[in-house]
Write a structure and sequence with these properties.
Layout lengths: L6 E9 L3 H13 L1 E7 L10 E4 L1 H9 L3 H7 L1 E2 L3 E5 L4 E5 L1 H8 L4 E4 H11 L5 E3 L4 E4 L7 E5 L2 E5 L1 E4 L6 H6 L7 E13 L8 E5 L2 E7 L4 E9 L10 H9 L6 H7 L6 E7 L8 E2 L2 E3 L2 H4 L8 H15 L6 H30 L4 H17 L1 H12 L25
Keywords: Monooxygenase, Oxidoreductase
GO molecular function, one term: monooxygenase activity
Pfam families: FAD_binding_3
């Protein structure tokens, strides 16, 4: 918590300087830990894409006193919805109804904006870039964890593995566990100037693929696309040309957005997920969060959101002065079931929105349209268990994050 006296003898090392790792470092620092963040890249330059933060992640950021600042920097999702490939609206969504249902609405910002805000909240000299850090020993009762770096070994009371989908920390903790598997689709992301004509935020479900267009506050748009393709494929020319081949005949403003992109603006990544859940997210003094623990398909927009949740829950249960090993056990106990359910829900959604059969797509669209006419709760019900989440403690700053505490097992 802000104002908590630091315990200089208690040292937490965070391996990975992405959104989850930086949020964990802030939470642990506020809880009283001395924190070091080790990032392999020479500088923190997030990929050119946006991120949507749902009410659950905003409540977690409220706990750190950052929620209002994030909302001020973000575009709030307005009226929009789901469209068919030819532009017909399947479902229209209301931002007001979403806010009433979940206590807030989705906000969108560039990943670089969020990372800059998180870095500015870290203590001076906390972040070290260009460091290839490896977990050599997860430690245990009476034995500290050991992290190796080119400059020598670091002993730590706690090591946080926030090193992404290819996590080396995860491999050390669970060497026999299956690696993340290919979902069957790849994703493209781009940020470009907004189209000249006004448009409504939308996600379009077409034949074997998805396109999404979301505005950012700075006058640009974040767009993303997915398609069923073999793993490891690349365009014979460039990825902008690949988007043109696949999506340029879809409805407006999709062709205009593609035309506004430069080839170097388009990012492409095969999508993998950890569909086989880990048995726990900790071992000894080492703990996993974010994609290192539960990589998921982006179909629910929850990858970064769940990393932020992880970070706040970890900081709460790893408070200095408490039993660290009991706290890590509770962290695993509350996070594994929740994130496993979301990984599986994201996989089911991916199967639904990548249908290739025309008749099946027609049935799907009709069912979704019918459900929306029965009432907005029919559409939002599937997302309610995600967006309604509350952190395990009230927010540090006044905001939208107050509410019931997360259900969790009692410590022993």
């Amino acid at each position: 918590m802000p104002g908590t006296a630091k315990s200089p003898e208690l040292h937490a090392v965070v391996i990975g300087g992405g959104i989850g790792g930086l949020t964990a470092a802030i939470g642990l620092d506020k809880a009283g830990w001395r924190v070091t963040v080790l990032e392999r890249a020479e500088s923190l330059e997030p990929v050119g894409s946006g991120i949507g933060l749902a009410p659950n992640a905003q409540r977690a950021l409220d706990v750190l006193g950052l929620g209002d600042r994030v909302r001020d920097l973000s575009a709030w999702q307005g009226e929009g919805g789901m469209r068919a490939q030819d532009g017909r609206w399947i479902v229209r969504t209301s931002a007001a109804a979403t806010a009433r249902r979940f206590g807030g609405t989705l906000v969108l910002l560039h990943r670089a904006t969020l990372v800059d805000l998180l870095v500015a909240e870290l203590p001076a000299d906390c972040l070290r870039t260009g460091v290839d850090a490896r977990l050599a020993d997860p430690g245990g009762p009476g034995r500290k964890a050991v992290v190796t770096t080119p400059d020598g070994d670091i002993e730590a009371d706690l090591v946080v593995g926030a090193d992404g989908i290819n996590s080396a920390v995860r491999t050390v903790l669970f060497p026999a566990h299956p690696a993340p598997a290919y979902t069957g689709f790849t994703a493209w992301r781009l940020v470009v100037p907004a189209p000249k004509r006004p448009f409504a935020p939308h996600e379009t479900w077409g034949r074997g693929g998805v396109w999404g267009t979301q505005p950012l506050k700075d006058g640009r748009v974040y767009a993303y696309a997915t398609a069923l393709v073999p793993e490891g494929g690349r365009a014979p020319d460039d990825e902008k040309a690949e988007l043109e081949r696949r999506f340029a005949r879809w409805h407006d403003p999709i062709p205009e957005i593609i035309a506004a992109a430069r080839p170097e603006d388009v990012l492409r990544n095969d999508v993998r997920h950890l569909i086989d859940p880990l048995p726990a997210y900790h071992r000894g003094r080492a703990v996993l969060l974010g994609d290192a623990a539960h990589a998921m398909a982006p179909t629910l927009g929850q990858g970064g959101n769940q990393a932020i949740e992880d970070a706040v829950v970890l900081a709460h249960h790893a408070a200095p002065g408490a039993d660290l090993f009991a706290g890590l056990a509770v962290y695993s106990a509350v996070r594994v079931p929740r994130t496993t359910a979301i990984v599986r829900q994201a996989a089911r959604t991916a199967r639904l929105n990548h249908l290739t059969s025309g008749p099946l797509r027609a049935v799907r669209d009709t069912l979704v349209r019918t459900a929306s006419r029965l009432g907005p709760d029919m559409i939002t019900r599937g997302f309610a268990a995600i967006a309604d989440w509350r952190p395990p403690q009230p927010p540090y700053a006044a905001g939208t994050g107050s509410g019931a505490q997360e259900r969790e097992p009692a410590r022993r």
